[in-house]
Design goal:
With 262 residues, the chain is mostly helical. It has eleven helices and no strands. The chain has one domain. Helix 3 runs antiparallel to helix 8. The protein is globular and about 70 Å long.
Length: 262
């Protein structure tokens, strides 16, 4: 535990540079984009809902669909940021220093999963609280039913951070497995953004879609989805966590093999 604590502290120092992509790109984008998109959609919806002469019908948003962009976009951005952080640490002097200080690759990979995962959990929790408390006050016609204290809101407060933590671990493990930041980021974006939705178009695709990792994780947060995995919301989160853990273990094993070859 002492070694892991030291490794987490090491990553905190490494990621704290003035030009750190994590703090200058990943975290700001993960915060700004979900907020901007959500508020923009809310403003337009509220405008249409309050114009009496319009023929457009705007349905009220329920609590279980109020933080959609945090879950579907913010979490993915943080996972991509963690994948980039893992891949950048395997190049040059940083890799040699880590090998000298900690030996086994498992230490720093686990430390990055923990460090970036905890930050991501805190960021997404803050976003959930900010959005679910501000939306009903700023846009009462469309978002008046949104309530942080509702069962959906309370579930978001713990399940969305869990999703973010697991997604970041998956991104870290995938980067360690592929040994390429570009490959890991491309796979994350392609799989989460395209494959998991498009797979419903193949024969029996809806059944296959029930086993897609990111969709299971999203379903496990309580976000409304036209998806019913066979193990329920809690089981869906556990399923996603297990897949994330598998990628971390695979990344550690692949890194160890590469080190022995070198």
């Amino acid at each position: 535990m002492t070694t892991l604590t030291r490794a987490v502290a090491t990553e905190a120092v490494r990621s704290g540079g003035r030009r750190s992509p994590w703090w200058l790109v990943a975290v700001p984008l993960a915060v700004a984009l979900p907020l901007l998109i959500t508020y923009a959609i809310a403003a337009v919806s509220e405008r249409f809902a309050t114009i009496k002469t319009t023929s457009i019908t705007v349905n009220a948003v329920e609590s279980n669909n109020s933080v959609y962009w945090v879950i579907n976009l913010g979490v993915l951005i943080l996972a991509v940021g963690a994948a980039h952080a893992q891949s950048s640490a395997t190049r040059g002097a940083t890799a040699d220093t880590e090998r000298y200080l900690f030996g086994s690759p498992s230490t720093m990979i686990a430390a990055r999963s923990l460090f970036y995962g905890v930050i991501s959990a805190a960021v997404t929790l803050a976003l959930v609280v900010v959005l679910m408390t501000s939306l009903p006050h700023l846009f009462p016609v469309v978002y008046g039913n949104v309530d942080l204290g509702s069962p959906a809101g309370l579930r978001f407060c713990w399940a969305v951070p869990v999703l973010a933590f697991c997604a970041v671990s998956l991104g870290t493990g995938l980067a360690a497995l592929t040994n390429s930041g570009l490959a890991a980021i491309a796979l994350l974006l392609l799989w989460a953004g395209v494959v998991e939705d498009a797979i419903a178009l193949i024969p029996n695709g809806m059944k296959v879609q029930q086993f897609m990792p990111f969709l299971n994780g999203i379903y496990g947060t309580g976000q409304w989805l036209a998806l019913t995995p066979p193990w329920g919301p809690n089981g869906a989160l556990v399923y996603f966590a297990a897949i994330a853990g598998t990628f971390v273990v695979a990344g550690i094993a692949a890194t160890a093999v590469r080190r022995r070859k070198n």
